[in-house]
Amino acid sequence: MTAADSNTRIVRWALVAGAVAGLLAVMAGAFGAHGLRNLVSERGLEVFQTAVSYQMYHALILVVASLMPVLGLPRKLLAVACGFWLVGILLFSGSLYLLVLTGTHWLGPVTPVGGLCFMVGWALLAIAALKK
């Protein structure tokens, strides 16, 4: 495998992950709006919507970041940032979805770890932009 192939894979996985995360965010949003309305409290719907919103924001940045190597930003640093955003989606949004859908409160401490992953991803993006 050449360096160009490796660089293309870095871009491709972030694009695919962003597209899938965006698709799932739309599906979760529709489910929350139509399927949960009579099943959970108003606060539960707010928490679910927060999970959907953060998932969509980070799905979009995954897609955008996959295109940033065209601007000359370091691919490997972008790939690490994308990894943190993807883990953030799983931990932050995933724990909130499970909290609302199952009432499992022990997942509460996982949510801030996901938020921290989001922050690390954004910090790495800033570093990548400064390294250009």
Automatic annotation (TrEMBL):
It is a multi-pass membrane protein. It is found in: Membrane. GO terms for cellular component: plasma membrane. It comes from the Bacteria. InterPro entries: DUF423. The keyword Glycoprotein does not apply. The chain crosses the membrane at residues 12-34, 54-71, 78-100, 106-130. Belongs to the UPF0382 family. This is DUF423 domain-containing protein.
